[in-house]
UniProtKB/TrEMBL annotation:
Keywords: Lyase. SMART domains: DHDPS. Belongs to the DapA family. PANTHER family: DIHYDRODIPICOLINATE SYNTHASE (PTHR12128:SF72). InterPro entries: Aldolase_TIM, DapA-like. This is Dihydrodipicolinate synthase family protein. CDD domains: DHDPS-like. The keyword Ion transport does not apply.
Amino acid sequence: MRTADRPWRGIHVATALPFDDDLSVDYDGFAEHVRWLSENGMDGVTPNGSLGEYQTLTAEERARVVEVAVSASPDGFGIMPGVAAYGSAETCRWIEQAAQAGAQSVLLLPPNAYRADADTVVEHYRAAAAVGLPIVAYNNPYDTKVDLTPDLLARLFAEGLIVAVKEFTGDVRRAYEIAELAPGLDVLVGSDDVVLELGIAGAVGWIAGYPNALPVASKKLYDLATSGQAHAALPLYRDLHPLLRWDSKTEFVQAIKASMDLAGRKGGACRPPRHALTGAAADRVTAATKAALDKGYC
């Protein structure tokens, strides 16, 4: 359960970012999306993640996205911006910006300009933690080439550098090892297609993609998965899994935006070099989204 002293818990939606026809950021549309997510049971948002296409934003755009998210949020709604950067100093500046804007926590990848060793990773998180906001580590070794293994997470947690981890590897066995090596470190579901398995394993949050399109059904699934009702969750999980698995694919941004469009939200175009789904991929996302909507999932 999300509380004032643990604002990173619960469902934080890794928000997709809408663009206008000229591919400028649609800040009004983004603010409306944040409000809509709060009205549909989400606990918070994580702007400026990969789903938010932060790599394509200017510094001014990236800062304003956080400010808009905060201003659009009701009291008690969590804001956990992504603060990834190539350099530790730049990461610290993004954490400072998040704090000044009113965010309650931040999501931080390890150094990702090269394959950093464990000591370098610790130094990076040590510098970030000194800024003062609670830090959720983001373990995505597929893209960063740095694996925040359970023993490394335990080292970071023991030093007080992180409060939680977004676990994206898909290896649900890690949740149990993390609990053994770092009792008290919160595990957050990091990829949509293992929400049931990690919910059973004790996850206390979900940094989620598909609630951008289907927040109500996603919340029901999460609540069942994390409250000992796996049997009741399984039919819904099976129905949604053809969509949820796209969160772990290279085309996840385009897929989720396409589903948003079909669900009546503004997903829209991505900034280059991402391009719209075509061919069989587009057909699969369309069919799976329509199947979910036909069953009343929203």
